[in-house]
Write a structure and sequence with these properties.
Blueprint (H helix, E strand, L loop, with lengths): L5 E3 L9 H9 L5 E2 L5 E3 L1 H9 L2 E7 L2 E8 L3 E12 L2 E14 L4 E14 L4 H8 L2 E2 L13 H4 L3 H38 L2 H17 L9 H15 L6 H36 L2 H11 L8 E4 L6 E4 L6 E3 L1
Parallel strand pairs: 4-9
Antiparallel strand pairs: 1-3, 2-3, 4-5, 5-6, 6-7, 7-8, 8-12, 10-11
Helix pairs in contact: 5-6, 5-7, 5-8, 5-9, 6-7
């Protein structure tokens, strides 16, 4: 029986999650974003993530980190989080996915709980390794190999990856055109207002460009330029002496951002339809199956691995910004 889709709650951002949905495609994430900003992983993919063989690679504090490597998909990273409270032992299995921005200058790690085990058994770690299919090392020590490649070659994770690759190829030019309009319009607004806040943003943006121009910014796209501009907003936002000027800018920017979201959504809709049509039938059927899953945006059922019961869990998380 498939578990219900996994949901990760997030706070609203400046672009109403539009860019996060594009990032999910560009980075080949196993999940995607709803319009309200919740990150979700379809139940079919959750099942595969739990079942796939994982290799323990390292441990830190109460976390154990594991890897899987599927042919045609690449590396998947998992975290096993251990905790004890009185007699109850809890083991949570997380999927860690990296989103690259500005060609890797910024990396956001999305940490999503996909399953858990709760027990009073003192051998709870061994139980978790068994339930989540975690091995200590490869049988052939020292040789990296692809795990379960045949079993998952035509699976839901692979179908999602093929969909992302196809969609990215289809909408790339139109997407960058929309991002270019968004960047130019916001920069024009910054220069037009010409107040202390907007001057600070422009100065900070130019300084950031200079700092990374030979590395991450050498082949920058319009999307990268917006990502760097967003970083500059985040760095400067909330400074007390600039708050009135900042608010003046945000009132005008909101109109620009709403139009950007509308334009990018149209590109996304166009791309998705064409991408699905271009997929092999086996992948197309799986993508359509996953798209029909009903997701409750308030709460989500997930699998309680140590019993046959289901329980309701509110899944909350934050991105970890690494620089």
């Amino acid at each position: 029986m498939a578990v219900s889709s996994i949901l990760l709650k997030r706070e609203k951002t400046v672009d109403f999650f539009t860019t996060e949905r594009i990032d999910a495609i560009e980075n080949g994430l196993v999940g995607g974003y709803l319009e309200n900003g919740d990150y979700y992983i379809p139940s079919q993919i959750v099942d595969e993530l739990i079942a796939i063989e994982k290799i323990k690679k390292s441990a830190f504090d109460s976390s154990i980190f594991c890897l899987s490597n599927i042919a045609g998909v690449g590396e998947l990273v998992f975290e096993l989080k251990l905790s004890e409270e009185d007699e109850l032992k809890t083991v949570k299995l997380y999927l860690l996915e990296t989103v690259f921005k500005i060609n890797g200058y910024l990396q956001n790690t999305i940490r999503t709980e996909i399953a858990r085990l709760e027990t009073s058994d003192k051998n709870f770690v061994e139980m978790a390794f068994d339930k989540f299919n975690i091995k200590i090392k490869f049988e052939d020590v020292g040789r990296e190999e692809v795990i379960d490649s045949e079993r998952y070659f035509n699976g839901y994770i692979m179908a999602r990856r093929q969909f992302c690759l196809t969609l990215k190829d289809i909408f790339k030019d139109k997407m960058l055109e929309v991002y270019g309009k968004y960047f130019n319009t916001r920069m024009l607004l910054l220069k037009k207002l010409n107040n202390e806040y907007t001057k600070n943003v422009i100065e900070h943006y130019n300084a950031e460009c200079k700092k990374i121009e030979k590395y991450f910014y050498q082949y920058a796209t319009n999307k990268n330029r917006n990502e760097l501009l967003n970083k500059c907003f985040e760095d400067i936002n909330g400074k007390t002496h600039l708050m009135n000027f900042e608010q003046e800018f945000k009132v005008e920017e909101e109109k620009i951002t709403k139009q950007f979201a509308i334009d990018l959504e149209q590109v996304e809709i166009y791309g998705e339809k064409n991408a699905i049509d271009k997929l092999k039938r086996i992948d197309r059927d799986k993508i359509n199956e996953m798209r029909t899953v009903e997701i409750d945006t308030k709460q989500v059922k997930t699998k309680e691995v140590n019993t046959e019961k289901q329980f309701i869990q509110e899944v909350n998380g934050n991105e970890i910004l690494e620089r």
